Amino acid sequence: MKILVTNDDGVLAPGLRTLCDVAGEFGDVTVVAPEVERSGVSHAITLTRPLRVQEVEAGWHALSGTPADCVFIGMNHVMKQRPDMVLAGVNRGPNLGFDVIYSGTVGGAMEGTIQGVPAIAFSLVSRDEEYPYDLMAPQIRAVLAQAVKTGIPTGSMLNVNIPAPGLAGFAGFKVTRLGHRRYSNDIWERKDPRQNEYLWIGGTRVTMEDDPATDCGAIKLGFVTITPLTPNVMAVEAVDALDGFNALEVPSTRVRGISERTRR
User: Fold this and answer.
1) Cβ contacts of residue 189 below 8 Å, gap of 6+?
2) pLDDT in tens, 16-55
3) Positive/negative CA dihedral, 58, 34, 102, 17
């Protein structure tokens, strides 16, 4: 297999090394990752400035762009043949619930899906500041082995969250739906040395549901959650409710005041 790996924590992130070590058991690995951390950039692509790619070691490339840029450039420029799989991670922290909308890790994997290549995003969920990536290798290996064996449904990707031992005891693997996870709307106001105001977006308090059928609830119980995602964001269930729009007519552009003056 030819495997393309990226992340959003940057090319030097330890989680990236762990993922590549495991992926190397399944095929030839090529890394194209952001040269610096690009967390929270979602599926952004760079269209307004040039991109620069540099090989930092054999098979490892740093790109001055986003994770989605990395996958696009990796597939269409760096690699000599199309990859069989795109992997992203291992992210430092969860990508649960609404996190997937903001996540650069998920955005990188989703670019693989859009390009027609099976893709998986991996994230490590910890209760504290300990992120034992090496301990997650067996779970990563099991997911990859199953994905290679059975494949990934066409047009979708897998979003995998792995609980650290400090979060919960390992309970197994579970296919879940997206849950509800929300951050507090904190905005921190500060002043620079010239007394000009600047802002940091916070989000220090997090709430998420306990339903074990969701990724948010299952992760609390110690499950490695596997959630299928798709780039098709159409709200099919809303189509019937919008039927009234089908009967709209274009309103008249005739303005009474103008027409009266014209008659005179």
Assistant:
1) 197, 198, 199
2) 999 999 999 999 999 999 999 999 999 999 999 999 999 9
3) positive
Angle at 135 between CA 137 and CA 215, to 5 degrees: 75
Model confidence over 140-165: pLDDT tens digits? 999 999 999 999 999 999 999 999 99
For residues 161 and 219, is the Cβ–Cβ distance under 8 A?
yes
Would the pLDDT of 99 be above 90?
yes
HEC per residue, the chain = CEEEEECCCCCCCHHHHHHHHHHCCCCEEEEEEECCCCCCCCCCCCCCCCCCEEEEECCEEEECCCHHHHHHHHHHHHCCCCCCEEEEEEEECCCCCCHHHHCHHHHHHHHHHHCCCCEEEEEEECCCCCCCHHHHHHHHHHHHHHHHHHCCCCCCEEEEEEECCCCCCCCEEEECECCCEEECCCEEEEECCCCCEEEEECCCCEEECCCCCEHHHHHHCCEEEEEEECCCCCCHHHCHHHHHHHHCCCCCCCCHHHHHHHHC
User: Is the distance from CB of 120 to CB of 109 less than 8 angstroms?
Assistant: yes
Q: What is the mean pLDDT of residues 118-139?
A: 93
Please tell me the CATH code under which domain 2-179+210-234 is placed.
Answer: 3.40.1210.10
